[in-house]
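F.,

This is the one I mentioned.
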């Protein structure tokens, strides 16, 4: 099994910054990608940013230029630096890790961390 521990959410004013962290532990064989998704009330979960082990980083258009994803592979940790936050960024943010095990891809999710941006 794989466990994901998220931290860093909270309440911030518009224009402020937050940094989310997610540490993966457990039976980690080969990480395909680490990333962040978010879900606002009444909306579907959407991709925020993902960083594959091989390949290009991808961002949602709504966060390009404001959010930066990074990884520390030695610590199996992914970060999301969020700057110039807007009220529309308010959501529960979920860490996602895709792992390759025995030629199959598995998705693991964190418990979610609330980010609230006040206007």
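My design for it:
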């Amino acid at each position: 099994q794989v466990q994901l521990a998220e931290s860093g959410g909270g309440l911030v004013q518009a224009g402020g910054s937050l940094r989310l962290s997610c540490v993966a532990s457990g039976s980690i064989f080969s990480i395909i990608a680490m990333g962040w998704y978010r879900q606002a009330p009444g909306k579907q979960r959407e991709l925020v940013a993902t960083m594959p082990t091989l390949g290009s980083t991808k961002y949602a258009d709504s966060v390009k230029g404001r959010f930066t994803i990074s990884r520390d592979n030695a610590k199996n940790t992914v970060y999301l630096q969020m700057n110039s936050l807007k009220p529309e960024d308010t959501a529960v943010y979920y860490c996602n890790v895709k792992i390759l095990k025995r030629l199959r891809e598995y998705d693991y999710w964190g418990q979610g961390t609330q980010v609230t941006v006040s206007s």
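The mean pLDDT is 96.

Talk soon.
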